[in-house]
Amino acid sequence: xxxxxxxxxxxxxxxxxxxxxxxxxxxxxxxxxxxxxxxxxxxxxxxxxxxxxxxxxxxxxxxxxxxxxxxxxxxxxxxxxxxxxxxxxxxxxxxxxxxxxxxxxxxxxxxxxxxxxxxxxxxxxxxxxxxxxxxxxxxxxxxxxxxxxxxxxxxxxxxxxxxxxxxxxxxxxxxxxxxxxxxxxxxxxxxxxxxxxxxxxxxxxxxxxxxxxxxxxxxxxxxxxxxxxxxxxxxxxxxxxxxxxxxxxxxxxxxxxxxxxxxxxxxxxxxxxxxxxxxxxxxxxxxxxxxxxxxxxxxxxxxxxxxxxxxxxxxxxxxxxxxxxxxxxxxxxxxxxxxxxxxxxxxxxxxxxxxxxxxxxxxxxxxxxxxxxxxxxxxxxxxxxxxxxxxxxxxxxxxxxxxxxxxxxxxxxxxxxxxxxxxxxxxxxxxxxxxxx
Amino acid sequence: xxxxxxxxxxxxxxxxxxxxxxxxxxxxxxxxxxxxxxxxxxxxxxxxxxxxxxxxxxxxxxxxxxxxxxxxxxxxxxxxxxxxxxxxxxxxxxxxxxxxxxxxxxxxxxxxxxxxxxxxxxxxxxxxxxxxxxxxxxxxxxxxxxxxxxxxxxxxxxxxxxxxxxxxxxxxxxxxxxxxxxxxxxxxxxxxxxxxxxxxxxxxxxxxxxxxxxxxxxxxxxxxxxxxxxxxxxxxxxxxxxxxxxxxxxxxxxxxxxxxxxxxxxxxxxxxxxxxxxxxxxxxxxxxxxxxxxxxxxxxxxxxxxxxxxxxxxxxxxxxxxxxxxxxxxxxxxxxxxxxxxxxxxxxxxxxxxxxxxxxxxxxxxxxxxxxxxxxxxxxxxxxxxxxxxxxxxxxxxxxxxxxxxxxxxxxxxxxxxxxxxxxxxxxxxxxxxxxx
Lengths: 437, 437
Hints:
- Chains A, B: Keywords: Amino-acid biosynthesis, Histidine biosynthesis, Metal-binding, NAD, Oxidoreductase, Zinc.
- Two copies of one chain form a homodimer.
- The first copy, chain A, is an alpha/beta fold.
- Chain A has three domains: 153 residues, Rossmann fold (3-Layer(aba) Sandwich), CATH 3.40.50; 200 residues, 3-Layer(aba) Sandwich (Rossmann fold), CATH 3.40.50; 36 residues, Single alpha-helices involved in coiled-coils or other helix-helix interfaces, CATH 1.20.5.
- Chain A has 17 helices and 14 strands.
- In chain A, α7 links the parallel β5 and β6.
- In chain A, α2 crosses α9, α8 runs parallel beside α9 and α16 packs antiparallel against α17.
- Chain A is globular.
- In chain A, 57% of the residues are buried.
- Chains A and B meet through α5, β3, α10, β13 and α15 of A and α5, β3, α10, β13 and α15 of B.
């Protein structure tokens, strides 16, 4: 863990090292992924079955690629009622927040009599990738699928690897609650290829979302353009700005909740209170003695964790804006003045009773958020990812008379004569009083 | 040019060929671009000067990379007043439409007492790439720069190659009108590298937008993640749906206005009126005899152009939704019934007095639009490209009591104990009546 202090002469160098630690450049696996995508495009279902045999150690025929309703029924029956209820609390809140996000269409007539506007429409079909094994989180299924549903996407196809044929009941229950329309037991780059290019069994979609390993990320990079993709997520991060009286154990657990995700995760505490800094550092050590995922959390905390003491909260805000964190907690009596000054953060959690884990499950806003400082320019997943805009203009004769000549002048200056003529021929038709143009 | 008829038995095969023609897979230039980006990252300004010497045949020092205010003044003085006025008509209308696009923040308190919301903030800095030579369009400078300015982006850096040292006065005048804060005489992949990684002279930006050749497109692909990028544009396209009495020459010019962009451009007329179809075909041939860019337009029209006769307008709409065109004109007495059924299009132009060229220059909506069928999932450039969302939650003690247990249950089911503990420790503190947590 790194201890930094803004009043130390080494601070800028230490902080620069901490930021560089988040550099998002990752190893690429271009070659193998290019081959897998080409095979899926060429051989369709046969390639999917072959890769599934090779990577997930299971024999599967095209007819068995899709997980049947009976299998989903059976899996859902295994999930305890208490967890169905928890999924429902989460899903209801996520739906409600994303419904509030839905944008309105725009339409107005301007001073030149031109009707202008912008219409939002949902995508027809979306593919949702869900990782297999330990990285398969039902909460992630809800967070990826529900915004698409709320946006009005009709077809929602999910691909999830089932190594050795083992299904994850809670993932299937979450998919059913979220309204996923079809689920396939296919993973890796081959799943992304199937969703992008389509096979006899898996029709192509318009956008592929969801987390995955390096192969899945590279496959999304390569199919980008043919279909839309979401951003390539890096390791998870949190910055906690704490002031005033706080339970050090609660703050320590918030830091460890990030650290336990991944040895590459980063958890940072920023506080003007040196005594609190030390108390949280001690509480982290205490929790690491009993935490089930202590090995992962310890690796993350030792290598990437940081506690930064600052002179005041203004200094804290300046650091937050440089970090542009995925998650930001403001744990203090009155978080509003700090909140108002934050320019870059994926999601913000305000006050003492709002740990980031609430946002991971039941808060309502999406937990798929920009990592590695990309909150400078990127946003969390939302209904906007499943909608697109069509702009429109409706100009009548009088409007064309008013704004047409400027278009002709610019088109001629750019050397695009057909552009200019397409406007001027109409102006001429109008001048002649022709009823046709 | 391809003549298709929906009542022909070959229609589906012919139409499938027409769609496949738009396949967006392009040749990649990964290797050279990777080297250029690495050199810029390593050597900064020195690499920019070296590549500019090599590719643009001009000696330049770091101090001369930025185009000075005096040079911009001199260039603007060369632009005729009439063109300054036309640029201003365009800029004013573009600003006005994009201001209307600006979204509102969201903030509400739900039934569980949780305050939820979403705040939009502008990016700090944006890089605008402008191609050199004949592809340098002042209208494109307005369309890329003004939405960023309207969104509130403070710093707008433009890179434009100036082969052999030749500046384009109208491009510089457009940049000044659009509020570009700094302009550099650097082009190609090296410009994208400078904008993404920063050099001593060109500070890094958060997002790079603007059209470019294959090297620029590949460079954007490779820096994606470190900075945001816009979509990689393919050749321009238009679909015109025409019915009722129309001037065939006006429609022919609308088709040729796309065709004259690029031999790969595609212009398609869809009409239920066989006589109109023939008249437009003849009019295209007539215009091609005199059009200055006839060679380019002829190549596009012959290879990729199409006239499709349909039984009725419902058939036309179905084809439009399959094509998902960049531009769509609905040239008929009452376009509304067709307009209402279109699900996928970048921009729509309604009525007889609204040729697509109006939208290229002075309409107001953006002319940077999704090509190659990507209107299925993508949208035109807008203020949304220069804003990002931060979601927030503020839960008080009572809210945590209500929604916290579901989060604990899901975190435990996912095996993330620190997540569960970060919630339950606060619930315990509350149960004990502790004043601290």
